[in-house]
Design goal:
The protein has 218 residues and is of the alpha+beta class. The protein is built from 4 helices and 11 strands. The protein folds into 2 domains: 2-76, no CATH class; 94-217, Mannose-Binding Protein A, subunit A (Mannose-Binding Protein A, Chain A), CATH 3.10.100.10. A 4-stranded antiparallel β-sheet has the order 4-5-11-6, sandwiched between helices. Strands 8-7-9-10 form a 4-stranded antiparallel β-sheet. The chain has a 3-stranded antiparallel β-sheet with strand order 1-2-3, with helices on one face. α1 packs antiparallel against α2 (29-49). The chain is elongated.
């Protein structure tokens, strides 16, 4: 009994492995069900021969199948289904970690850039991790000098928050000595390239015109 059930168990594993090896492809339920019907029937016959009764068998793969004494039923996700984390970004937007990014190459003040992002249902970029900072450096190369980002300490001097969420910065890549704000008016953050990475600093919000990157959820 144990030997025969073990062989059938291996057969079930093989079927599951085949199903899992085809990510992104639609599953032919009729063929898959037929194979599982055969495995299930063999389980039932082997158990019955040895005085046992299998009431229900579950096969958890890309195809969820439940077999009972009366047969098997299956359900599968369509190959084009998208979860919350793998939605596609609109055309001309770049995708990273569930977010969409667009470079606005025309030069604006910080407030004007923020308003422009809002018209695109987005925000001035917030950068929340080292991996995101590196990705931005590698992805957006068609700009010089500096770009506005969404960090600001306007509400409270020295307390830097993201304008998109109002949350305090938990990650930063400030340049040495920054933010310094010697005049007490450098309330807006910007990023620039240095040493093969993106560095952050502060400036007056209307003291310069620069491109920016807008960011929104995918």
């Amino acid at each position: 009994m144990i030997s025969s059930l073990f062989c059938l168990y291996i057969a079930a594993i093989v079927l599951q492995t085949v199903a899992k090896s085809l990510p992104g492809k639609s599953v032919d339920l009729s063929i898959f069900q037929k194979n599982l019907h055969g495995v299930h029937a063999a389980f039932q016959n082997s158990a019955k021969t040895n005085g046992y009764l299998l009431t229900e068998t579950h096969f958890e793969t890309k195809v969820k199948t439940i077999c009972t004494q009366t047969g098997c039923s299956s359900s599968a996700k369509e190959k084009n289904d998208h979860t919350e984390n793998d939605r596609e970004c609109p055309k001309d937007w770049k995708t990273f970690s569930g977010n969409c990014y667009m470079l606005l190459s025309d030069k604006r003040t910080w407030d004007s850039a923020k308003s422009k992002c809002k018209t695109l249902k987005a925000n001035l970029i917030d950068i929340t991790s080292e991996s995101e900072n590196r990705w931005l450096y590698k992805t957006f190369t068609d700009w010089k000098h500096f770009l506005w980002m969404g960090a600001t300490d306007r509400p409270k001097e020295g307390e830097w928050r993201w304008s998109s969420s109002g949350k305090l910065l938990t990650y930063n890549a400030w340049a040495k000595g920054a933010p310094n704000d010697p005049s007490g008016k450098e309330d807006c953050g910007y990023i620039f390239k240095s040493g093969g990475k993106l560095i952050w600093s502060d400036a007056t919000c209307d003291g310069g015109h620069a491109p920016t990157i807008c960011k929104k959820k995918a």
